[in-house]
Amino acid sequence: MHDTATLSLMSAPFLLAAVPAILSVGLSKGGLTAIGGLAVPLLAFAVPPTVASGIVLPLLCFSDLFAMWTFRHHIDRKLLWPLVVAAIFGVVIGFLTFRMMEERTVGLLIGLVTVLFTVRYWLGAYLDRLAAKAPPTPRAGLFWSVMSGFTSFIAHAGGPPLMFYLLPLKLNRMTFTSTTVYFFGIINLIKLPFFAVLGLLSADNLAISAALAPVALIGVVIGTWLLRVMNEQLFYRVSYILTFVAGLKLMWDGLPLA
Q1: Does some domain include residue 175?
Q2: How far apart are CA 177 and CA 76, in angstroms?
Q3: Number of helices (H), then strands (E), in the chain
Q4: Is 4 a domain residue?
Q5: DSSP 8-state secondary structure symbol assigned to residue 169
Q6: Residue 117: inside a domain
Q7: Which of left, alpha, beta for 170 (phi over 0: left; psi -120 to 50: alpha)?
Q8: Residue 189 domain-assigned?
């Protein structure tokens, strides 16, 4: 186990995991939203999953501010607020159950959510066709929002559950992006006091987050640039393979016999 009090930001193993992990945070806020779930699994190669979550959350909130300002004009508020309220229940459930789980169990859950996240992407077209046959109801939206709040609290991976509801609505691109950005921006801010109570926002973790903030900003810039010049399909294919492998590693580490 790693102790953040003695963790050196200049150690090669930590930087090898931290730089791509935090870059993925910035990339996701710069427009490549689908790879946001990569941060915690990657960082968990260097520090325990709970520490990784504590380091990543302030950087998510920091990056969210830029995204929320950019997409402030296209929010569907009537859709947004019921989803946020439901997601808060999921956050509270995550908070109340967090202390009941051992650290390896948390890692196992993060790995499981990560693997399901990648499988959801690979089966996206098939699942979307199934969803189109049964248009989502407001009750389904509340259910998936609760699940999103829970998985967001445990693994900063609330995207897949929310997508199960939002994608079949076929919103226009700007409304979809803006509403999603604000949903997670608000939920990430709400998670901060809960993380503080759990001791995940220690002075050491916050110092590491602050030191890595420029990496997140660089990620935002690179993400915006990549959207214009890179083969997007290739980028996502590589990103999801890395995410899947990182998720499997977390699951293996969390198994009782590992």
Answers
A1: yes
A2: 10
A3: 11, 0
A4: no
A5: G
A6: yes
A7: left
A8: yes
Q: Tally the C-alpha atoms within 13 A of residue 163's C-alpha that lie toward its C-beta.
A: 19
Alpha carbon distance, N-terminus to C-terminus of the chain: 15
Extract the residue ranges of the chain whose pLDDT is less than 50.
1-6, 258
Helical H segments across 123-172, by residue range:
124-133, 138-155, 159-166
How much is the pLDDT for 227? 60
Which class for 201: exposed (0-12), middle (13-18), buried (19 or more C-beta within 10 A)? buried
CA atoms 221, 188, 109, 34: torsion sign: negative
pLDDT digits (tens, 9 = 90+) for 17-29: 888 888 888 887 7
- Residues spanned by the domain of 51: 12-254
Q: What would the DSSP string read from start to end of 21-71?
A: HHHHHHHHHTT-GGGGGGHHHHHTTTS-HHHHHHHHHHHHHHHHHHHHHHT
For residue 230, the SS3 value is: coil
SS3 of residue 82 by DSSP: helix
Q: Are 158 and 87 in contact (CB under 8 A)?
A: yes
Work out the angle at residue 59's Cα, subtended by the Cα atoms of residues 254 and 51, and round it to the nearest 5 degrees.
30
The model carries a pTM of: 0.78
Cβ 198 vs Cβ 98: under 8 Å: yes
Say what the pLDDT of residue 183 is.
Answer: 94
Distance CA 98, CA 105 (A): 10
**Tokens for 200?**
């995940």
Q: Which two tokens stand for residue 169?
A: 């609505």
Burial of 10 (0-12, 13-18, 19+ CB in 10 A): exposed
Residues 6+ apart with CB under 8 A from 75: 175, 178, 179, 182
How many domains does the chain contain in total?
A: 1
